[in-house]
Design goal:
mainly alpha, three-stranded mixed sheet, 17 helices, 3 strands, disordered N terminus
């Protein structure tokens, strides 16, 4: 009998324009010889562009700290600006998801990175006292361009990594992007502390050159995958799947909380506790920083004990932290409130990683069920990879709308009562419902299944 061929798989073929025509991440030989190196190279470039995208998307969370009385914008108007940026970025995630299949992951990353020059250049001209409010609203719409990068980036990275390594890879990709929120706020703090609140345009002197650098880097370092091109059918299948909608709901609670609180934290500190712009900026960046750093931990834990288990206990912890914020508001305790709010960021970050690990795991389990029914393994696994990639983008779009809901809730709460407490009660109810949904749909069924643990 002839011994089976033990030679390593051939390296991926690269055509003109960096199109990979042979991509088999689930093949151990291929992954060891070629796949890991290529995937990691793409991952670091993806993180760089997504990081800057999040920073641009978060600009108004910093701009509002510079907008003193001379700008003529009250607290409700500032919350509306951050809400507008959140809404636009959320909606753009849907076409950005499809753009990866249409144009290629590398091509779209380069283009979407370069598009960030539009809002930053416009801001350099209009960000000053005396500018009409409608111009600031238009700028908020343009800033929303930074919110779309996440969906295309995550969908692209999902296709590059094998199932057992997706949790950490997606966590690093998302966490590296999320930390852009904290970085832009940290730079804002530096500007306020050194130059004063009258110079917000110094932020743009940092980010306009940085956008050029990361766009060029992505053009040089990334690849397109030929197998996912024009795969619109995957999105249609994802839209017909109930898990897309359930996971969208849960992602509203994790990422929606992260981005919503990131945009609102400084305004809440200013309006509820009377903090100055410098005092607010000195604390605001801590939450997004912590939430971003722990996101890969959520993915790593989920690779080992299951995403649904991590997600379940994170929602429990977020409910507890929300109660701490409610009690602190009643006691007018800034220290206790800050502990509770930073705790929300921490567990939202871990939950971001765990929910994103759940998505490919759900479709991997569906693939195993399909194989048990007779579908060829190669087709079942390819379908799982395709559909989960599309679902990731769609879920990210809906989940980001949670940031809009949080900012609108704070706007209504402060407008009607002068306090954020009513909004926190609403958030508490949502987290409790999320605990119930996670347990009933995923955690309980995963324990009873011998297939992939979600």
């Amino acid at each position: 009998m002839t011994a089976p061929d033990q030679s390593p798989s051939p390296p991926a073929t690269v055509l003109r324009g960096r199109w990979l025509t042979d991509w088999r991440p689930e093949d151990p030989d291929f992954w060891a010889s070629t796949g890991r190196r290529v995937a990691q190279r793409n991952l670091w470039a993806s993180i760089a562009v997504e990081h800057v995208g999040f920073s641009v998307w978060s600009l108004f969370s910093v701009f509002v700290l510079f907008m003193g009385p001379e700008y003529g914008v009250d607290a409700a108007g500032k919350f509306l600006l951050t809400s507008t940026a959140t809404l636009v970025g959320s909606v753009l995630r849907v076409p950005y998801t499809f753009a990866v299949a249409r144009f290629g992951g590398r091509n779209w990353t380069v283009l979407s990175g370069a598009l960030l020059l539009i809002p930053t250049t416009v801001a350099a001209f209009v960000l000053q006292p005396g500018t009409p409010y409608w111009v600031f609203m238009l700028l908020a719409v343009l800033v929303g361009l930074g919110g779309g990068n996440f969906a295309s980036s995550m969908a692209n990275i999902n296709t590059l990594y094998p199932e057992g390594r997706k949790g950490l890879a997606l966590g690093l990709n998302a966490g590296g992007g999320n930390i852009g929120v904290a970085v832009v706020q940290l730079i804002g703090l530096l500007v306020i502390a050194t130059a004063g609140a009258a110079y917000p345009k110094l932020l743009l002197a940092v980010y306009i050159p940085l956008i050029v650098v990361v766009s060029i880097y992505s053009a040089l370092a990334m690849d397109n995958i030929a197998d996912v091109r024009n795969d619109t059918g995957a999105a249609e299948l994802a839209l017909r799947d109930r898990d897309t909608y359930i996971m969208s709901f849960l992602y509203i609670g994790t990422f929606g909380s992260f981005i919503g609180y990131s945009f609102a934290f400084g305004l809440v500190l200013q309006n509820q506790f009377g903090r100055t712009p410098l005092q607010a900026a000195a604390v605001t960046f801590l939450g997004p920083l912590i939430g971003s750093l722990v996101r890969p931990v959520g993915g790593w834990l989920s690779d080992r004990i299951g995403g649904s288990v991590v997600t379940l206990w994170n929602f429990v912890a977020m409910a507890v932290c929300t109660l701490v914020c409610i009690v602190a508001s009643g006691l007018d305790s800034l220290a206790l409130f800050t502990v509770g709010f930073v705790g929300l960021f921490f567990f939202a970050g871990v939950g971001n990683g765990s929910t994103y690990k759940m998505i490919p795991a759900i479709y991997q389990r569906k693939a195993q069920l399909a194989m048990a029914d007779g579908m060829p393994a190669a087709r079942a696994l390819a379908d799982a990879r395709r559909i989960s990639g599309a679902a990731i983008g769609l879920i990210s779009a809906v989940g980001a709308l949670g940031g809009l809901l949080i900012n609108l809730a704070f706007r209504e709460s402060f407008g009607s009562t002068g306090s954020g407490t009513p909004a926190f009660w609403a958030f508490l109810v949502f987290y409790v419902v999320s605990v119930v949904v996670t347990y009933a749909v995923y955690t309980r069924t995963s324990r009873a299944s011998e297939l992939v643990t979600v």
